[in-house]
Amino acid sequence: MLYFSTGDHPTDHNLQRLYHLASLERFDDDPERMNDWLNAVILSIRALPKAAAKHFTGSYYLGDSHFHMSAARRAASWRRLVDELRDHVTAANVDPELRCDGPNGPADLSDRRETLGERITELCQKLQRASWGTQEFDAVLGTIDSLAIGDVRSDVAELKKLSSRKRIMDMSDHQYWIARHIAHIRLVASRFHHLAAE
Hints:
- It is built from eight helices and no strands.
- By secondary structure, it is mainly alpha-helical.
- The chain has two domains: 9-98, no CATH class; 116-189, no CATH class.
- The longest helix has 24 residues, at 71-94.
């Protein structure tokens, strides 16, 4: 098992994700599954800073050619790409410049783009500072809603209900649920570091 410790959570997340994608052992004849794998690899590589991305020199941009290959050729091509990715992940893992305690100090990862996970986490911090039921709270919540994907949407919907509630029987319970939904959004957002903040 490989672990990454660059000192930058989004970079570690994407390197760990690439390691997971390089651990694939089953190559079936489903071109859609291969397409999903390729897209996941490409998104994670694009999210890396240059110091880490330089290790990933493979050609994962196949267009739609894998949809037109025979099943045997597609499986062989996919296996080759996984082996290549495994080599790239290993090279990144042993690179002392990618360690937070490297010989020259932490790597300069400042050229990394902002991720969707970071943007949503920052908005959650603003949400926690704002008072629920105010225009500021609702505006920040609306921004999160416009960025939200997956499980975040259900939390946003619940927060909208809680924020608009006029009669509150138990204030501590009400505040607990607001804090819980915000915390869950932050937790889910930590899985969005392979996506760019638009």
